[in-house]
Amino acid sequence: MVHRFGITQLLPVALVSVMCIAPGTSSVAPQESIETSALKSSAKGETLAVTNNKGEHIGSAVSFQVKNGIHWAVTNQHVVADHSSVCLNSMTGESYPFSVVALPHDKKHSKQMDIAFLRAPAGTTTGLITARLTEMKPSQSLTFPIVVATGYPTSAQAKGRRPILHMSSGLLVPLLESELEEGYDSTYTAPVEKGMSGGGVFINERLVGINGAHSDPLWEFHWKDRYGKPVETSLNEKLGLVSIGISTSTILREFRRVEGQRAKHSDIDC
């Protein structure tokens, strides 16, 4: 569970609002007193729940492109782990089998990037919504725009039922001048919970990244830069107060390395 107390200490006017959308509902009451149009306008279903071959919820993903007859989605590597295929499930109840495309190790990083791409023949994904993507480098944003973090918290999901989408709003806070280990480069105050990893992060309804890690880690953790060197203590303390993700700029850079790769057909029954 994400604690919000540290977030408001980071910025005196940090805007935080949360919504959960259950299937079949036309309107949703926010769990916070602050209500934003950003939350209402982002409930379009580009973010999908990820389940394994046992039907177990393992995280979130976001559909971002159809190209050359292939439908592409992206999530975190720690979501798919060693799975070769997963099911992507929409909040309206449709399920789609996708193959996992392994991302080659980048020697410029000390650890494997926490990005995994998912693909399926476009003819098998009818009805699946694709996000409108904007390539963005968070370090260049100095205006603190409102972001909406989306995903499917593990605590809200039940096996055999339609997934429940969760959305929270906050501010994009440019704390990082360069990437952290595993490609993390985006920081924001929108709360993220377990199960929302890989879910889309949006500004004005456009995809700008995916979730990766929530604030207030349950154990002591020190972040490292892309070369494996620990970041300064003051920065590490700030990183513990925000959600951390991966920007579309980094996602697209890594996508160019894999989009021409062949992948096995999905062997999962959704």
Topology:
Blueprint: H1 5-10, E1 17-21, H2 37-41, E2 47-51, E3 57-67, E4 70-75, H3 77-80, E5 85-89, E6 95-101, E7 116-121, E8 146-151, E9 165-171, E10 186-188, E11 200-203, E12 206-213, H4 233-239, E13 243-247, H5 248-258
Antiparallel strand pairs: 1-9, 2-3, 2-5, 3-4, 4-7, 5-6, 6-7, 8-9, 8-11, 10-13, 11-12, 12-13
Structure in a nutshell:
By secondary structure, this protein is of the alpha+beta class.
Q: Would you kindly provide a written description of the structure presented here, covering whatever features stand out?
A:
About 10% of the residues lie in helices and about 30% in strands. It has 5 helices and 13 strands. It has 2 domains: about 5-45 and about 130-250, Beta Barrel (Thrombin, subunit H); about 45-130 and about 255-260, Beta Barrel (Thrombin, subunit H), CATH 2.40.10.10. It has a 7-stranded antiparallel sheet. A 6-stranded antiparallel barrel has the order 2-3-4-7-6-5. The protein is globular, with a radius of gyration of 17 Å. The chain is α+β, with helices and mostly antiparallel strands. The two termini are about 30 Å apart. Mean pLDDT is about 85; it is low at about 1-15 and about 25-35.
User: What summary fits the major beta sheet?
Assistant: 7 strands, antiparallel
Q: How many domains comprise the coordinates?
A: 2
Order of helices and strands: HEHEEEHEEEEEEEEHEH
* CATH homologous superfamily label of the largest domain: Trypsin-like serine proteases
Mean pLDDT over the residues: 83
Strand content: 25-35%
Ends apart, CA distance between termini: 29 Å
- Using the 3D structure, state the CATH architecture of the largest domain: Beta Barrel
- Lateral strand order in the biggest sheet: 1-9-8-11-12-13-10
CATH domain topology of the largest domain: Thrombin, subunit H
Q: Which percent range fits the helix content?
A: 10-25%
Count the DSSP helices: 5
Derived structural class = alpha+beta
Count of beta strands = 13
CATH class of the largest domain: Mainly Beta
Radius of gyration over C-alpha positions, nearest whole angstrom: 17 Å
| Gross morphology | globular
- Uncertain runs are 1-16, 25-36
